[in-house]
């Protein structure tokens, strides 16, 4: 048996370019994103499973799905 390593993937918001529209919050099936003080989206890294739904919905294209640092 080979042990396959799976690197967890997480959403990452380029906060400087986020317009706080909230589309990603609505798109996330796990409730992993919230809008911080009405100015930027913040991802709860513990909840995020890297599904990419938020990134698809972001009109500003400022969400990337990256391999999480372990
Ligand atoms: S990648 Fe998926 S789980 Fe993670 S924040 Fe985006 S929609 Fe939510
Ligand atoms: S969808 Fe994009 S621009 Fe809108 S709040 Fe989320 S990260 Fe920011």
Short note summarizing the structure:
With 70 residues, the protein is an alpha+beta fold. It has 2 helices and 4 strands.
Explain the overall architecture.
The chain contains 2 helices and 4 strands. It has 70 residues and is an alpha+beta fold. The longest helix is centred in the middle third of the chain and has 5 residues, at 23-27. The chain binds iron/sulfur cluster (SF4) (2 copies). One iron/sulfur cluster binds at residues 11, 27-28, 30, 32-33, 43, 48-54, 65.
Topology (SSEs and partners):
Layout: E1 9-13, H1 23-27, E2 33-36, E3 40-43, H2 53-57, E4 63-67
Antiparallel strand pairs: 1-4, 2-3
Using only CA atoms, what is the Rg?
13 Å
**Are any ligands bound, and if so which?**
iron/sulfur cluster
Order of helices and strands: EHEEHE
Helicity range:
10-25%
The order of strands across the largest sheet is 1-4
Q: Sum up the overall morphology in one term.
A: elongated
Query: Structural class given helices, strands, pairing?
Result: alpha+beta
Largest sheet: 2 strands, antiparallel
- Beta-strand proportion: 25-35%
Keyword list:
26% strand; two-stranded antiparallel sheet; 70 residues; 4 strands; alpha+beta; binds iron/sulfur cluster; elongated; 2 helices
């Amino acid at each position: 048996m080979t042990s396959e390593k799976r690197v967890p993937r997480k959403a990452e918001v380029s906060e400087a370019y986020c317009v706080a529209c909230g589309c990603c919050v609505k798109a996330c099936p796990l409730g992993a994103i919230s809008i911080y003080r009405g100015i930027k989206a913040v991802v709860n890294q513990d909840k995020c499973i890297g599904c990419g739904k938020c990134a698809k919905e972001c009109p500003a294209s400022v969400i990337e799905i990256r391999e999480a640092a372990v």
